[in-house]
Amino acid sequence: MDSDDTVPLSERPEWSDVVPLTQNDGSNPVVPIAYKEEFRETMDYFRAIYFSDERSPRALRLTEETLRLNSGNYTVWHFRRLVLEALNHDLYQELEFIERISEDNSKNYQLWHHRRWVAEKLGPDVAWRELDFTRRVLSLDAKHYHAWSHRQWTLQALGGWENELDYCHELLEADVFNNSAWNQRYYVITRSPSLGGLQAMRESEVSYTVKAILANPANESLWRYLKGLFKDDTESWISDPSVSSVCLRVLSRTDCFHGFALSTLLDLLCNGLRPTSEHRDSVKALASEEPDTDLANLLCTILGRVDPIRANYWAWRKSQITVAM
Amino acid sequence: MSSTSTSSQMGQLVADKHVRYILMAEKKKESFESVVMDHLRMNGAYWGLTTLDLLEKLGTVSEDEVVSWVMTCQHESGGFAGNTGHDPHILYTLSAVQILALFDKLNILDVGKVSSYVAGLQNEDGSFSGDIWGEIDTRFSYIAICCLSIFKCLDKINVEKAVDYIVSCKNLDGGFGCTPGAESHAGQIFCCVGALAITGNLHHVDKDLLGWWLCERQVKSGGLNGRPEKLPDVCYSWWVLSSLIMIDRVHWIDKAKLVKFILDCQDMDNGGISDRPDDAVDIFHTYFGVAGLSLLEYPGIKAIDPAYALPVDVINRIIFTK
């Protein structure tokens, strides 16, 4: 940053030849435009440079000052790219600039799009740098949607898949409820060029997920991930003993939420699993209501009770069973 | 609002106060929100004006002033900017078109030019960019499709490829993300389901699976979150609810609890709605709160179309014209 950035632009010799251009807000009564003085002046100089299309070093510095005041202003980012191209500016310096801006506020689309534009120009050499940058952002907010999006783009476009499964594990160790990390894990096992795809990964992933479920049976993400491992393969979904057994092991415990284990068992039954006496006994043990002769029906009744906010959903599930029978 | 939230007004929509909040917003000089919203003023105008229309108070603003300001934001390419003197972007183009639709002023547009701008943003794989700089996101697919449908010229794009791209963003939970493989997010789901609904392609949605994921978004307080384990936020009253309505699964959530959650987010003294009870209000959440209540058929609010995000009477006027 320039040393004179606290001096108003109107008092800096460098800008004496530029006539600032004020915003014409009209008298529209709908949405307010109110400027703090510094912001107003900086924007006025920016508009002057933007309309005269001055692609100069001082224009680049001015966009920096403007973005420091409001990193969401997409027009300033656009113009900055034109200036960067015209000056053939060092793009590694630009990565540093973006990192500084992101420290104040990284939740805006413009910043990430700009980052991608720069990284794309620099190519695979910056893959690790991009992974490291997103790792730092995710260390502050592990569900940061823009950071995840940039990370997936980096992997696809620039590479760097090697340690990604370990990274997912690291995040899940820190917070097993992090749905973004589970999504990334699925992304890696289905798309990484070195892992062999979903089929090859299924067995080890099922055992990884089952372990996590037993530690956290009330975690929605885990159960969905488990189901996702059997995408387009209902046959294996109902026949894999690990799946029905994790349901039973959760149901046999008295110290945890049973909803997802019950709904997974219901899903297995609806997909053709033949219930055993062990299934029946473990479900009936939880039933305070009249035991229904049909196990799937009973599951819906219990689910309606333990998950009352979605009572209508479970009633609908029950009606579907009757139809199927 | 905490001091007044226990007053006798609790549980009522303070519609008049929300109208005054929107109209008074202009007088709040020096506010930080106003400064950072400069470049997206077109979105803000859409949120404010649509809320006024839903509350049957659109007549309180000067149509001529709004419409002439909107037109100063049009670029020679046909696209609209977020404000006068900014660059065109598809985000603000849809807001501009929606604002003109509210005032029944679509006829002042050079439709061929605007639709060519939008259609020109489609990529080879069917996706859409937001502007000439090429950022890709399923949000832009929705915007393009919504906009061209309002103009009745969806034939200007390759709808089949656009749909294929959206379907490629479908996840194992039945939801959709911003690009293929990206995490399901209620806002992106609205965009994808909306685009599929408008083009008659809802058969690509696994309605029961997605419906369950969406109704799992309701938390104990009655509010909805946008992803698992995130906090509830009034904006998801729009994104989740509209998606549930489009796939005909809205009866799976507890509507009464959601109404109460939204009403609890009102500033009972000065109007406006916040993301969560006791937070500061803003125009974005005021719109999503009122629009959510509209979808929940709250009395005194006009019906809103869940796919086009405009009042139903406005959409009917467009559909039944010409």
Give the helix/strand layout:
The complex is a heterodimer of chains A (325) and B (322).
Chain A: H1 37-52, H2 57-69, H3 74-87, H4 91-104, H5 109-122, H6 127-140, H7 145-158, H8 164-174, H9 179-191, H10 197-215, H11 220-228, H12 234-239, H13 241-251, H14 259-270, H15 277-284, H16 295-306, H17 311-324
Chain B: H1 15-24, H2 32-37, H3 41-54, H4 63-72, H5 90-102, H6 111-119, H7 138-150, H8 159-167, H9 186-198, H10 207-215, H11 235-246, H12 255-264, H13 283-295, H14 312-319
Helix pairs in contact in B: 3-5, 3-13, 5-7, 7-9, 9-11, 11-13
**Which percent band covers the strand fraction of chain A?**
under 5%
Terminus-to-terminus distance of chain A:
72 Å
- Rg of chain B, rounded, reads 19 Å
Terminus-to-terminus distance of chain B: 48 Å
The share of residues in extended strands of chain B comes to: under 5%
Please give the largest β-sheet of chain A. Answer: none
CATH topology of chain B: Glycosyltransferase
Helix count of chain B equals 14
* Topology pattern of chain B, helix = H, strand = E: HHHHHHHHHHHHHH
Helix-strand topology string of chain A: HHHHHHHHHHHHHHHHH
User: How much helix, percentage-wise, in residues of chain B?
Assistant: 40-55%
Could you tell me the radius of gyration of chain A in angstroms? 28 Å
